[in-house]
Specification:
Strand order of the largest sheet: 3-2-1-4-5-6
Shape: elongated
Number of domains: 2
Structural class: alpha/beta
Number of strands: 14
CATH class of the largest domain: Alpha Beta
Number of helices: 18
Radius of gyration: 24 Å
Length: 436
């Protein structure tokens, strides 16, 4: 089957490469000529473990190609996926759907055969109805079914998530759409991946509801961490104790500096706006968004307290290890590191930072931060070190070397990757999250 993937960003490129690996003929389409040129040269526009090899292998096999020509790219395609960005719109927080509708219009004007048009982008409820109207108004004489097929890819583990999914959600309103999508995902039947068919609107809501629920679990544990610090508890013990309950589960119960990334911040905000539009408020999600926003700067203040308070911290220097919102990605979108660094800068604390993959993305967002070539260069001469992202490279630091490079043995661990007892024995003034 020929598949066209309009949009060669994170979702489009990973999805397109995986579909090609299933044996489909995939064309990835993007208006950014520079991005397409880099892809032709084998240079990935994003960092995702294993993606470069997956793309190279399928390009070599002739199953994956790239173009800026949408009309040529969709010619003969049975399924045309829309995988363009839907960022939060400036001013009101609604998802910006202008790119989605622009693609739908261009697809309708250039369609040369019957096809299923699939919204892979994360879109609010009712977007598929509007895409259908745009296609109809384009005057295409061909049979078109509009389907919702949300993605559930974790950055840093996207290829595995795509090939071994918990579920595949397909929102379709007719048999044509359902049958084509069954054929698209047929290779996954061998893995017995559950194929969940729903209405289109239910499918659109499932994506937002899933992300809002996961964001709620993270935020709940962050508040429990604060309570643990007050009462002398250990948030990791609490997380294990409740996570063993099958009704709750152990995932997304790790306390830290707050969630960020390409999905949770914008999707929770978009869900709030949809709820407002339909006069059906989601108070829990409102609280999650507010608590998460406040937490990031609170983590900056936690570092300031570890330096002795605002007066003592003034003029000092902090080494920040980790900038991306999570490990195994170069994504800086809404990363806690941004707000933490800004809080430190506002308190007249300078910051030297290192991240294995995210520094190029971080530079334009953190102009006051000095980027260093390795963790020890960042630590050298600092008054404290703060671990913001739990990259593997930071899990086994040479603690003797770290202590010798620091002006004072102060370490703030916002990801709880070290044990308090061991750090005290190593001679550090150690601060973590939710542990006395």
């Amino acid at each position: 089957m020929k598949i066209a993937m309009v949009g060669s960003g994170y979702v489009g490129l990973v999805s397109g490469a995986c579909f090609a690996d299933f044996g489909h003929d995939v064309v990835c389409i993007d208006k950014d000529q520079a991005k397409i040129d880099r892809l032709h040269a084998g240079v990935m526009p994003i960092y995702e473990p294993g993606l470069d090899a997956l793309v190279a292998g399928n390009v070599k096999a002739g199953r994956l190609s790239f173009t800026t020509d949408l009309a040529e790219g969709i010619r003969g395609a049975s399924a045309i996926f829309i995988a363009v960005g839907t960022p939060s719109r400036r001013g009101d927080g609604h998802a910006d759907l202008s790119f989605v509708y622009a693609v739908a219009r261009e697809v309708g004007e250039n369609l040369s055969n019957d096809a299923v048009v699939v919204t892979k982008s994360t879109v609010p409820v009712g977007t598929g109805d509007e895409v259908e109207r745009v296609l109809r108004d384009s005057g295409t004489p061909h049979l078109v079914s509009v389907v919702s097929n949300p993605e559930f890819l974790r950055e840093g583990a996207a290829i595995g998530d795509f090939k071994r999914p918990d579920r595949i959600v397909i929102g379709a309103e007719d048999d044509f759409g359902r049958e084509v999508m069954r054929e698209v995902y047929r290779p996954l039947f061998l893995n017995e991946s559950p194929l969940l068919f729903t209405s289109r609107r239910s499918s659109e809501l499932i994506k937002y509801a899933a992300n809002a629920f996961l964001a709620t679990k993270i935020t709940f544990m962050n508040e429990m961490a604060d309570l643990c610090e007050k009462v002398g508890g250990n948030v990791q013990d609490v997380a294990r104790g409740i996570g063993l309950d099958g009704r709750i589960g152990s995932k997304f119960l790790h306390a830290g500096p707050g969630y960020g990334g390409s999905c949770f911040p914008k999707d929770t905000l978009a869900l709030l706006k949809t709820a407002e539009d339909y006069e059906s408020p989601v108070r829990i999600v409102e609280a999650v968004v507010k608590v998460n926003d406040l937490r990031k700067r609170a983590m900056g203040r936690k570092v300031i307290e570890a330096l002795g308070g605002p007066d003592e911290a003034r003029g000092k220097r902090v080494a920040m290890l980790g900038l991306t919102f999570k490990p195994n990605t170069d994504d800086m979108r809404d990363s806690p590191a941004i707000a933490i660094a800004q809080t430190l800068n506002d308190a007249k604390v300078s910051v030297a930072a290192y991240d294995p993959e995210g520094m190029e993305q971080a530079r334009p967002l953190m102009s006051e931060v000095e980027m260093m070539g390795d963790p020890y260069s960042a630590i050298d001469g600092a008054d404290a070190v703060v671990i913001v992202t739990e990259w593997d490279a930071f899990r086994a630091l040479d603690l003797n070397r770290v202590k010798s490079l620091l002006k004072a043995p102060v370490l703030v661990d916002l990801r709880n990757i070290y044990q308090p007892e061991a750090m005290r024995e190593a001679g550090f003034a150690y601060t973590s999250v939710g542990r006395a």
